Amino acid sequence: MLYHLFHFLEQYDVPGARLFDYITFRSGFALVLSLFIAIVIGSRIIDRLKGAQMCDKERDEKEGGNALKQGTPTMGGIIIIISILIPCLLLGKLNNVYMLLMIVATLWCGALGFADDYIKVFHHNKQGLKGKFKIVGQVGLGIIVAATMYLSPAIVMHENVSVSNRQTNELVITHKTQAVKTPTSTIPFVKNHNFNYSYFTRWMGDYAEVGGWILFALITIFVVTAVSNGANLTDGLDGLAAGTSAIIGVALAIMCYLGGNIIYASYLNIMYIPESSELVVYAAAFIGATIGFLWYNSFPAQVFMGDTGSLCLGGIIAVFAILIRKEWLIPLLCLIFLVEELSVIIQVPYRKYQLKHHGVDKRLFKMTPFHHHFTARPEKLTWTYAIKRPTRPVHEAKVVIRFVLVTIFMAVLTFVTLKVR
């Protein structure tokens, strides 16, 4: 809103109005504003949640819970959502399709997580929203994103090409002058980092491009579902999901800025996506909101984000990466989410196999998701497990810091892949 207001005032030479034309100014403003909003409204929302008895009442220590945290208010993801939306609505271009998609994704995933938390708290159902309804919601968001990217004339890209300079015998990186709508993504460790999904649908002949978009839609659905659930599983220790998400947000913001600027895109030999730089404003608000939430969520937590926050964070990260065509970098950048998810996927069949063939309740990890493997107290467990280390429980604050450090390392490695061919 403020962007459009100052854009109007710019016609009348109002001093300072042109500042809102600069992505860097609006992004910095969005970060500070979202951080300020999260800290200021956080305590009030926490009090409201306590008053409404939105508390985590049931925690089984054998299943990864901590009885000392009973009574801590949940659904604190509301703080994150509000702190993201207000700066975006004030400072973003509301006629930009990328910004609109991110706002829709935020509200969509936030509503899905809120429904899950509501059922857990008020219906005393620890399972929350049934898994099939979560999947339907995540698939629905994936379809909306993929369909919009296919149908919107504003979502295009300029492919990077290498041209040999005969005089200097050097490769010069340029971008095709014509913007095209194509199901192309960025992949690491190849020459030009570009991969067109139509490669797998060449057998469709004239319909290969359409087939590529259908494949892209399926990948989008998978990424949204996987990352959203991965973030949901990561939310189990004070500050873990918010801390790792903030680092991922910084990495995505930088990649978005580079891909939305033709000069930097040429230097890095990556595709140029016009108008996508507006997402930097959103990413800045996301970073400020997650850091502001850590003010209350760091150990010992005064509030939990609940599924309202965790499902929303994962959905935001997934959609953001897809919009800037970096979904194939997610396994590196979101390694912690991936490990947390895989630990659960592996644990269940391993336990079933042991029960069926050996008649013992033996598990691969002490507990899952993976972060609970480090904090679990062996004397409290009634089952055996294959991986013994660490032999003593690690304090959850140390586990969180180490996981955040791993995420920082993976973020750096993700950028390195842009120059490794």
Give a description of the structure:
The protein has 421 residues and is mostly helical. The chain has one domain (2-158, 190-343, 397-416). It has 14 helices and 6 strands. The protein has helices spanning 2-9, 23-51, 77-91, 97-122, 131-151, 208-234, 240-259, 262-268, 279-297, 306-323, 330-333, 335-357, 371-375, 396-416, and strands at residues 160-165, 170-175, 184-186, 194-196, 362-363, 384-385. The longest helix has 29 residues, at 23-51. It is globular. The two termini are 43 Å apart.
Radius of gyration: 23 Å
Shape, per Cα inertia axes? globular
Trace the largest sheet across and list its strands.
1-2
What is the count of distinct domains?
1
Task: Describe the secondary structure blueprint for this structure.
Blueprint: H1 2-9, H2 23-51, H3 77-91, H4 97-122, H5 131-151, E1 160-165, E2 170-175, E3 184-186, E4 194-196, H6 208-234, H7 240-259, H8 262-268, H9 279-297, H10 306-323, H11 330-333, H12 335-357, E5 362-363, H13 371-375, E6 384-385, H14 396-416
Parallel strand pairs: 5-6
Antiparallel strand pairs: 1-2, 3-4
Helix pairs in contact: 2-3, 2-9, 3-4, 3-9, 3-10, 4-5, 4-10, 5-6, 6-10, 6-12, 7-9, 7-10, 7-14
What keywords describe this structure?
globular; two-stranded antiparallel ribbon; 421 residues; mainly alpha
Short account of what is shown:
The chain is mainly α and 421 residues long.
